[in-house]
Amino acid sequence: MITEKVKKQLTSIVGKANATFTAEDLICYAYDATNKSYRPEGVLFAGTASEVSEILKLANVEGFFVVPRGAGTGFTGGSLPVKGGIVLSLERMTKVLDIDRENLTATVEPGVIPWELGQALAPLGLFYPPDPTSYKFSTIGGNIAENAGGPSAVKYGVTRDYILSLEVVLPRGEIIRTGTKTMKGVVGYDLTRLLVGSEGTLGVVTEATLRLLPLPESKKTLLAVFPGLMAAAGTVADITGAGIIPATLEIMDPASVKCATEFTGSTLAEDSALLLIEVDGTAESVEKDSESIKKIAFDGGASEVRSAFEKKEVKDLWKTRRAMSAALFRLKPNKINEDVVVPRSRIADLIKGIREITDRSGLLIVSFGHAGDGNIHVNIMYDKNDANESEAAEKAVAEVFELTLGLGGTISGEHGVGTSKAKYIGMELSSETLCLMKGIKKVFDPQGILNPGKIFPSHEEEGYERAGVVR
Ligand SMILES: Cc1cc2nc3c(=O)[nH]c(=O)nc-3n(C[C@H](O)[C@H](O)[C@H](O)COP(=O)(O)OP(=O)(O)OC[C@H]3O[C@@H](n4cnc5c(N)ncnc54)[C@H](O)[C@@H]3O)c2cc1C
């Protein structure tokens, strides 16, 4: 419980305009995209690394929890104050501090929105590749904490591949810099890579230096229409197997296409499975790859492959794809959105297994995602007020994870563990690995002040393992 005295101290650190303890404000910061709610005891909007440092130092003295927050778009409860304490919002730190054209880097504060950075870079002929579907409303700090990835990960990789250096405030308040601005650097342990994807449990990112790339000369969009999801899934591995790495390779099942087109009012109403593919590079390589992909798609059973799109049509296609997650709520009031990944060659097996789970559970399970890198969003739709459906949904989640691990995959490629997946982490990681990770947390945060209740299962949930899972 935060006392009145501590509230005053916190207010004096960030200023009156940047601290709130009123119920109506606290409710606004009680949510993320998981649709669960935990009300914080206060919300602070930090403006500098020193403010973050002072807050954390005070937290260690007074013994209250601090939960970092970007835009609150996380899918696993990472920014929720599940054990109380204050929410530390970085949304006010929105400066692009530097764009260095010669060294192809940008240095930003954590509250910068990736799309806005993209708008500043495009006129310079540059881009920052990580593009989570939430790129227009999540923050780069949150992307770093979750190691976010998006459609372009198939060719360009994920957030971790573009972080050169970080300024981080450690849980006890020390401010450190990790990495360097150089392309190479191997001095000491790679703390940058450890902090990226650490879900706000090891430190608060207050600045990041990002690697940029020159914009490709040419880009082409293709839409391959298949009678069913299995044929579309099989074609994914055929494309990469032919040595072609598209810039994006997205898969959508008929139910998600129908839902999203109705939601956006797009004309793409198909009762088919789709592959949305983009190739980029030189004009010559783009033409060559597009022709090869068309042939592979037809060989794989596509009924049609469209490619001559106007700029507006491409925008509409992506609008529909990006609306998919939200559109699914038209089907059922609740969903569990899993982000499993399997080797590309096993996508068809994953789809087949999900179909079996769907039939067994009697639930509606909708799949789409970044098939090019093996990452499929499995959306288990249910009504939480229906006890049978809720129980079936929980069971289906465990079955999807078992299936994924059996195919050599991982239970999360994007959203992290947070609170939602904590109880399943033992299915993928051995107890020795988990013990090492807990030890790392203890070194960074001996008092457990920063973002408690995340990643590691609570005492009651421990031991949720699958015997025989290959580790
Ligand atoms: C419609 C939709 C589509 C999405 N699509 C994708 C997708 O394609 N790919 C993908 O990877 N994710 C996706 N997400 C999930 C989400 O957008 C990402 O996880 C994103 O990176 C979260 O950013 P945020 O700023 O909202 O962070 P929050 O949700 O506020 O926080 C997420 C985690 O980061 C920590 N955190 C936030 N800022 C900092 C900081 N400065 N320092 C330390 N820790 C911090 C928090 O404590 C928390 O643990 C999607 C979400 C939605 C709603």
Element layout with pairings:
Layout: H1 4-14, E1 19-20, H2 23-28, E2 42-45, H3 49-62, E3 66-69, E4 86-89, E5 96-100, E6 105-108, H4 114-121, E7 126-127, H5 140-146, H6 153-156, E8 163-169, E9 175-179, H7 191-195, E10 204-211, E11 213-214, E12 218-226, H8 229-241, E13 248-252, H9 254-264, E14 273-281, H10 283-299, E15 304-306, H11 311-322, H12 324-327, E16 334-341, H13 347-361, E17 364-370, E18 375-382, H14 387-406, H15 425-428, H16 431-444
Parallel strand pairs: 2-4, 3-4
Antiparallel strand pairs: 1-2, 5-6, 6-10, 7-11, 8-9, 8-10, 12-14, 12-15, 13-14, 13-17, 16-18, 17-18
Helix pairs in contact: 1-3, 8-10, 8-13, 13-14
The protein binds flavin-adenine dinucleotide.
Flavin-adenine dinucleotide binds next to strand 3, helix 5, strand 10 and helix 12.
